[in-house]
Specification:
It contains four helices and eight strands; from the N terminus they run H-H-H-H-E-E-E-E-E-E-E-E. By secondary structure, the protein is α+β, with helices and mostly antiparallel strands. It has a single domain (5-29, 59-166), classed as Beta Barrel (OB fold (Dihydrolipoamide Acetyltransferase, E2P)), CATH 2.40.50.320. The radius of gyration is 20 Å and the shape is globular.
Amino acid sequence: MRIPTWRLVLTGGAIVLLLGLGIGFAAASTSTGTSSAAALAAPTAAPGASAKPDRPRIGQRLREFLGGSGRRLGGRLVHVTATVLDKDGNLIQLQLDHGTIQAIGNGSLTVAEAGGTTVTVSTDASTLVRIGPDKGSLTDLKVGQTIFVQSRIDGGTTLAKHILEVAAAGG
């Protein structure tokens, strides 16, 4: 039984988004606010000016949180394995890895993750690659690039379904 690619992408994206939002809420709840004395001393808005604070939009916050610079979720996420139900009620295992390419070729990809661990996943002609926002191919990937890999674990084999190359932090 083949699971549609869009369903795997949607499930993986939902897992990443929910994980990211959870980390964001946890970080927001532990951040320090402005002291009341500083708030009292702050200048007030000019008459007729909007009292609305100048805050970034939600979409911008999500991009910064999940962003290509890897400062938030991308910089902290290392490895996730999740078991989910497919449309027929069967359990499937998905895996998400983040790190740098250590080796690539001969139908496999080795990712060096934070903490010194490495993960090797299989690749095939159906593995989808994105280089930033653009479509790419396995031949576009080079050793040392920072990537996210979404894989499916089936019968002891971990097959990369989607690979996203992202800019390294600060780049």
